[in-house]
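User: Please fill in residues for this 270-position structure.
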């Protein structure tokens, strides 16, 4: 078992030997999160000061950060004392030339596992294996426990990383649904996509997927109503029409275009 296990895909979790070392204090948690998203790389004092104090540091920022690091190391030491593996707090959270570094070669970071699943799914899709792509994406998405870093007060760097992960999550979700649609699983997608359109009222992709799933499920009137609601929201909130792609999809549903029909299941070779 790895000494260090880290979770970014939801509330911040950092465990040493299975014991949490996440501080209760907001600033210490913020510092630990910054070190985590830069796992294995030194984070300079300038970056730490910007994240923790947004250009308005206290009179002795280096001393304050040193105190935070000492407190985190104490939590690591207490957790390591309960671990069957040896974990040196100063090696796990080390001082560099101009900052601090958190790292261990075997550390498990859920965000890395998720991104690896997304990459593998992309390769599976490129090779025509939609079933494997959908399976890989489902496994990666199952790692999410909430919004990225949802219990950390994020500054610029942490906020950017949380946003990047959330965008990758949505892209992975859309890719998994696309794979399921290609596999003819449209009936089972309608309720999920209905919830997603409420969660993302301006996201064209999930609306387009719902329109297609409804059409393929023999519910064209519901599909047209989804487009009508989306268009009304766009005009009211943004003052623009939906994209040409969504308008073309709307016209295809109106015309009962056979190109929208579900793909035929593959026939096994005799």
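Assistant: Residues filled in for all 270 positions:
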């Amino acid at each position: 078992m790895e000494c260090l296990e880290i979770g970014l895909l939801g509330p911040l979790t950092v465990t040493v030997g299975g014991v949490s070392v996440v501080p209760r204090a907001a600033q210490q948690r913020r510092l630990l999160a910054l070190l985590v998203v830069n796992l294995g790389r030194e984070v300079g004092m300038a970056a730490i000061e910007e994240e923790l104090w947004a250009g308005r540091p206290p009179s002795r920022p280096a001393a304050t950060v040193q105190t935070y690091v000492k407190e985190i190391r104490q939590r690591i030491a207490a957790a390591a004392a309960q671990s069957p593996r040896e974990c040196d707090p100063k090696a796990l959270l080390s001082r560099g030339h101009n900052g601090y570094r958190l790292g261990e070669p075997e550390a498990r970071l859920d965000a890395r596992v998720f991104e690896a699943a997304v990459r593998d799914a992309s390769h599976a899709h490129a090779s025509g294996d939609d079933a494997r792509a959908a399976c890989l994406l489902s496994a990666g998405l199952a790692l999410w426990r909430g919004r990225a870093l949802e219990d950390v007060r994020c500054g610029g760097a942490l906020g950017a990383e949380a946003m990047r992960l959330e965008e990758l999550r949505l892209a992975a979700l859309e890719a998994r649904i696309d794979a399921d649609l290609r596999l003819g699983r449209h009936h089972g997608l309608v309720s999920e996509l209905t919830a997603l359109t409420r969660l993302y009222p301006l996201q064209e992709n999930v609306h387009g997927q719902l329109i297609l799933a409804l059409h393929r499920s023999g519910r064209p009137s519901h599909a047209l109503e989804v487009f009508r609601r989306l268009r009304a929201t766009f005009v009211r909130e943004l003052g623009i029409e939906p994209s040409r792609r969504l308008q073309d999809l709307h016209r295809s549903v109106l015309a009962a275009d056979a190109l929208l029909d579900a793909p035929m299941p593959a026939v096994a070779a005799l």
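For context: The chain has two domains: 4-109, 185-270.
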